[in-house]
Design goal:
The structure is a homodimer.
Chain A: H1 6-29, E1 35-36, H2 49-67, H3 77-91, E2 100-103, H4 106-117, E3 123-127, H5 132-139, E4 144-148, E5 150-151, E6 154-155, H6 157-166, E7 173-176, H7 190-203, E8 207-210, E9 235-240, E10 252-256, H8 259-273, H9 278-288, H10 291-317, E11 324-326, E12 334-339, H11 344-353, E13 356-357, E14 359-360, E15 373-377, H12 383-401
Parallel strand pairs in A: 1-13, 3-4, 3-7, 7-8, 8-9
Antiparallel strand pairs in A: 2-10, 5-6, 9-10, 11-12, 12-15, 14-15
Helix pairs in contact in A: 2-9, 4-5, 4-8, 6-7, 10-12, 11-12
Chain lengths: ~400, ~400
């Protein structure tokens, strides 16, 4: 029998553990009449297909040879400059193109972070619950998890301090999604942001700030990114074009001011896939380079998702169920619902029969020990589908409770 | 100080070892008047820019929403089917779409192979010399190398047997580039192919067959792929669109009939970057789906490279240097020259002053112990540039010997 690596065995074991319910659900969603709140897909009807066709035409006409050739690992210099400028504008802190590494979707950024920091058995600190894709990326390096308690204002700084005081071995980094977190939709409160940066600075602990949804804010003012604070401890920022442009382009970025860490990321990416798609980067850059039009495009996405969130929240309010609780998020793509006393993995079986699916919350808890949550995506389905789907979910909950 | 992983430290150490001369050379090649035989770039003037613009237009018009959306880890089903059909046609053995995993350039395929097979200190068997990108991919998993002796007919089966008889620990797989190998341009002789498959079968040792150049044959008949033989030991085939279409698309594939290994590759890719670019896969597939036009395109590439090889070989024959030896390859992109008694890393310093560069052969020997080879790329420069560049190389050799 062929012998696979310990990492492959570990990854398979943990994946089997984590993915079984989701895999089951995905089988159901292939039926056309099922309404899925399970994925994390952007609204496809908002993809700028004509604009991208035109961008591809211009790129092929003017820079075709470069756009189809091998390129450097760090990424296309125009893309890196665009990211640095946008980051500077959004954070008020100055970023340079050289801080930016273009990666193949933010999942690759997380994989590279795992690769350069983690040895088997190392600890990663994350919110409880946290993003499943990050857990999967770090699982590949046989990580273990220490979790921070959270409330409606996101990660609780005192909980982080307690975790770090006791941690053994001391963790390699803290992973956080401060804006419209996946799965909870929660946003880390302003005053907690600087406190968390200072705690990590005191421990010289790197922060990985994952911010896929930051630009999809529906109301209120932007809060400062963690990376906008000066700190002597490294802060690695992960951003992506997937939610504001297209996930199929696989254009995302890590922004890292620490030169030593950045070099290790680049070296690691070089071995992993040489570089991200040149063609996609050129077309992406060509499309976004009309800044006003692109900002309008992002605003349209946020406006559409805001309406969908409102429709979903209104529909959820009609569900007559004791113990159903949710707080509408101020942005992003996910609404987190808890139904006290219910195991949502069990509920999913009933709701799949009612032709509506979601992701059971347990998947997002590294220890898989909390069972009453569910993640509902509101970006992908139309308003009408959201209404129908939530009505079905209400029936499923009543049926389940009976 | 931030603590990085053992893998990151190892990768940095080995990369520093392997890449220093190449990095130095790349600095020189940025000067516009330098002729570079150093890279492995396809001829950019042959890229089908108009065809790709048109393919992008059609994809955006007809399948825009799907082409910009998230997709499955295994790859676009149309692309997988296309690869399977092409493999079936080329090898005479039947492959199914489900055998195919689309990866982000063949470098990612090699990285995933390393990830699922290798623990630190594990042995990989490869030709001596072998492809630098593979060494870098496996370095990231802290591999060690056992090397097979080679001659003009490629890897020597008896040498492989000797290596396997003595190996401790027993290697995880054999990595081979049977067609127009990088760096030597050599092709594994027909009778050696089945022998090597049978040796590996006897030891139940997986083969990783890397075949980026197989379709770029200039003369003679195709030889059977290793994967075309029935064997009870797994054979993993790595193919790519980089040399027949565009490296900037990052569309490559692993073809694996062993279901268990394939599942581990897919799981590993899921954690590494979720999936390859949907947009690039759709555009790639749209472009190649006119089969006759695409075959003509590949034939044009091969014809062009053949002429360039001839020009380079003729020019090399004019160099009056004792001990200069080469055998023109029957395909691919590289010509391997040895100059007995010369350290080509030293020669590179002189030749860079003469405005011509190449990759010193030592980079391709895992043990870095052979110094008289150089790899010359003939696909990227025009015939005129090749003539001028080889003339300069001749001067550099004379100067160096003096």
């Amino acid at each position: 029998m062929t012998t696979v690596s310990r990492a492959a065995k570990f990854a398979e074991r943990t994946a089997r553990l984590r993915a079984s319910t989701i895999r089951e659900m995905l089988k159901v969603t292939q039926q056309p009449d099922v309404i899925s709140f399970g994925g994390g897909l952007p609204a496809p009807e908002l993809f700028p297909t004509a604009g991208i066709a035109e961008a591809a035409r211009r790129v092929m006409e003017l820079r075709g040879a470069a756009a189809l050739q091998y390129s450097v690992t760090e990424g296309l210099s125009e893309m890196r400059r665009w990211v640095a400028e946008r980051m500077t504008r959004r954070t008020g802190r100055i970023f340079e193109a050289e801080d930016v590494t273009i990666v193949n979707g933010s999942q690759q950024g997380l994989d590279l972070v795992g690769k350069i920091f983690l040895d088997p058995g190392d600890h990663v600190v994350m919110e409880n619950p946290s993003y499943l894709g990050a857990i999967q990326a770090f699982d590949a390096y046989q990580a273990r998890y220490l979790t921070i308690d959270t409330d409606e204002d996101g990660a609780i700084p005192e909980s982080l301090e307690r975790v770090l005081d006791r941690a053994d071995p001391f963790p390699k980094f803290v992973y956080l999604v401060p804006n419209f977190q996946n799965p909870t939709g929660r946003t880390l409160a302003r005053e907690r942001r600087e406190r968390i940066v200072r705690i990590c600075e005191r421990y010289d602990l790197p922060i990985v700030e994952d911010d896929p949804y930051g630009e999809l804010r529906f109301e209120g003012a932007d809060l400062p990114s963690l990376v906008s604070y000066e700190s002597s401890a490294p802060i690695l920022y992960s951003g992506t074009g997937s939610k504001i442009m297209s996930p199929g382009m696989r254009v995302a970025w890590l922004v890292i001011r620490d030169e030593e860490i950045r070099e290790k990321i680049v070296l690691s990416k070089q071995g992993a896939d040489l570089h991200s798609g040149t063609f996609a980067q050129y077309v992406f850059h060509e499309y976004v380079s009309d800044g006003a039009a692109f900002d309008a495009h992002v605003a349209t996405i946020a406006r559409t998702y805001r309406r969908r969130r409102d429709v979903m929240a209104a529909a959820l309010n009609h569900i007559a169920s004791d113990g159903l609780h949710f707080v509408p998020p101020s942005g992003g793509m996910f609404l987190w619902v808890t139904v006290s006393g219910i195991d949502t993995t069990e509920l999913l079986r009933v709701s799949a029969e009612q032709k509506v699916v979601f992701v059971p919350g347990v998947s997002f808890y590294p220890a898989r020990d909390v069972h009453d949550g569910m993640r509902l995506n509101f970006s992908n389905a139309s308003e009408e589908m959201i209404r129908v789907g939530i009505e079905r979910l209400g029936h499923a909950i009543s049926t389940f409770k009976r």
